[in-house]
Amino acid sequence: MVARTSGVSPDAGSGVRIVRVPEDRDGQRIDNFLSGQLKGVPKSLIYRIVRTGQVRVNGKRAKPDTRLAADDEVRIPPVRVADKEETGAPAKGLVERVGEAILFEDKEFLVLNKPAGIAAHGGSGVSHGAIELLRALRPNDTLELVHRLDRDTSGVLVLARKRSALTGLQELIRENRTTKQYLALLQGRMARATKSVNAPLRKSILQGGERMVRVDDTGKPSLTHFKVIELYGPASLVEATLETGRTHQIRVHSEHMGHPIAGDDKYGDAAFNKAMKVYGLKRLFLHAKRFEFELGGKTRSFSAPLADDLSAVLDKLPAP
What we know:
Elements: E1 8-11, E2 16-20, H1 30-37, H2 43-51, E3 56-57, E4 60-61, E5 73-76, H3 92-100, E6 102-105, E7 109-114, H4 130-137, E8 144-145, E9 154-160, H5 163-174, E10 179-187, E11 194-198, E12 201-205, E13 211-215, E14 223-231, E15 235-242, H6 249-256, H7 270-276, E16 286-295, E17 298-303, H8 308-316
Parallel strand pairs: 9-16
Antiparallel strand pairs: 1-2, 2-5, 3-4, 3-5, 6-7, 7-9, 8-9, 10-15, 10-16, 11-14, 12-13, 14-15, 16-17
Helix pairs in contact: 3-4
C-alpha cells in the first residue's frame, strides 16, 4: 500500500507518486497542476498520460478538463527522461511577436491580443503556445492561463500573475459572471437583427484527442446572444455575447441556427468556406473582442481591435 501524506508519496518499485493537492491549488486544472509537478515535461506528453488513464484523482481516471480540490490525491505515473520529447527553446521571433501583442499588465493580470495561429498552450502537436512563449519572455513571472481561445481565434486572452487572481476570475467564469464578446462572420444574411440561441452542448473527446461538440439535450446549458453589426452580400458580421462559456459554443450555436462561421473547417460549410477564400479569408473568422468582469470591487474591461487579416476580408466583401 502506498503511504499517503500531506506532501508526496512514492510508490516504491514503480516510480508512481501520490500527491496531495495543497489548499492554494484548489480549483486548478489537472494539466496545469501536472505541469508544476513534472518540470520540463511538455504539455503534449502531459495530455497523453491523462488521456491514456495513467493519471488518477482519488482513485478515478482524470479527464483533461478535471479541476482539483484541496486534499485530492493525484496519482502521477513515472515519466522517463527519454519520454520528454525535447522541443528546445521557442523561436525568438515568436517570443517577440507575443511580446508585441501584450495589451495590458499589472500585478494581477497580463492581457494578450492573441494572434491567430498561436495556440493558447502547447500540446497536441504544438510545441509552444502563448503561455509558453510568455513564460519565455518573462522567465521570472508566475503566469497561468485563466481561460483559452482556439488556435485560429484571435483576440483577448487573459493570464493571471497571482494565484488569487486566477482562482477569483475562474470562479466568476464558472458562475457566468463575466462578459465575453466576439466578432464573427456568419454564412448568409441573418433575417433578424438579434437572435439568442439557447441550446445545450455536449462535448466529446475523440480517440486522437480532438474535441467535438454538438447540440444535445443531455449536454450542459448554453446560451449565446447574436447581434448583427453589418450585412454583406454573402455573409453577416455579428457580435456574439456569451452567457455561458462552453467549448466551441459560438461555433456550434452558429451552425445550429443555420449560419456557420466563415472559415470553420470543423462545423462550417465547405463550399462557403471555399468561396470566402476569394476574399482572402485564410482562417476561422472569429475574434475575441471584449472581456469584462468585476473582481475585488474593481471593474476591468479589456478590448482588442479586429485583427488586420479579418478587417481586410471585410473590405473586399460585396455590399448587400
